[in-house]
């Protein structure tokens, strides 16, 4: 496996105190890395730094062993895709037009979609199975359907790394499972790619993530294989809950608060 992104000693703040404290991590090719933790742990802030939306106060970042600051923005945008919270949009655009926006880093104001663009878009639509939504205006779709379109837009870019911030939030169970299955299948079919996903649902994290980072108050307090990070001790200490866990079934069920 290859390290797609390496981060070392990242710190970040808006005011006092630090929101992120000495964060170090590697994102390896072929894996789905989950970032979990209670509200306010710094998960979304970290993802935005990895996506180059926010600049860290201190620390270093590399993409495929090249420092971020040495990578031209268009080149970075071809390799790293960010799926933000509440990504579904209400634009008055046809679904296929929204998906085609994923190819924007390869376009300028005067170029039409190339054969390569068309191929990538069709591949993305096939991967997510949303052919039946083509021709519809995205604002007319359900929340789950909009998220599938947003994910298709990301897939059409063919990035090395997908950064997804709570992609299952506010979705019904069917679409939660479908979105995570698609992200997992994407990395399995493209072993030189990876995905980093911020999640609150611990069962989804247990079922679909190869590795986890557990964040608490701006720090990574546990990292590694899913079962070790989601230990009873960690859940009690950092989530303040008791859980019933069955990792073979991908189940982490909160029982009560401590």
TrEMBL record:
Domain ABC transporter, which positions? 5-242
Q: Which domain of life is it from?
A: Bacteria
Keyword ATP-binding recorded: yes
Q: Which Pfam families match?
A: ABC_tran
Is Nucleotide-binding among this UniProt entry's keywords?
yes
User: Entry's SMART domains?
Assistant: AAA (SM00382)
**Keyword field:** ATP-binding, Nucleotide-binding, Translocase, Transport
Q: Name one GO molecular function term.
A: ATP binding
Q: Which family does it belong to?
A: Belongs to the ABC transporter superfamily.
Identify the PANTHER family for this entry: HEMIN IMPORT ATP-BINDING PROTEIN HMUV
Q: What is this protein called?
A: ABC transporter
């Amino acid at each position: 496996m290859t390290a797609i992104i390496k981060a070392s000693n990242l710190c970040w703040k808006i005011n006092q105190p630090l929101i992120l404290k000495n964060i170090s991590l590697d994102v390896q090719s072929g894996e789905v890395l989950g970032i979990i933790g209670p509200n306010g742990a710094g998960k979304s802030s970290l993802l935005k730094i990895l996506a180059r939306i926010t600049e860290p106060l201190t620390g270093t970042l590399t993409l495929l062993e090249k420092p971020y600051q040495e990578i031209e923005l268009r080149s970075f945008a071809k390799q790293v895709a960010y799926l933000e919270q509440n990504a579904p949009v209400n634009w008055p655009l046809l679904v296929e037009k929204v998906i085609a926006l994923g190819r924007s880093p390869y376009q300028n104001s005067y170029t039409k979609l190339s054969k390569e663009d068309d191929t990538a878009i069709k591949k993305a639509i096939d991967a997510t199975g949303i052919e039946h939504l083509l021709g519809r205006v995205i604002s007319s779709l359900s929340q789950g359907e909009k998220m599938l379109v947003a994910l298709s837009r990301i897939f059409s870019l063919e990035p090395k790394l997908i950064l997804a911030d709570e992609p299952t939030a506010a979705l019904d169970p069917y679409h939660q499972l479908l979105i995570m299955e698609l992200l997992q299948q994407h990395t399995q079919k493209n072993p030189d790619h990876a995905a980093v996903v911020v999640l609150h649902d611990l069962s989804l994290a247990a079922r679909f993530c190869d590795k986890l980072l557990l964040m608490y108050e701006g720090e990574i307090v546990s990292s590694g294989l899913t079962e070790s990070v989601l230990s009873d001790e960690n859940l009690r200490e950092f989530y303040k809950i008791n859980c019933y866990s069955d990792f073979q079934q991908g189940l982490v069920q909160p029982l009560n608060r401590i």
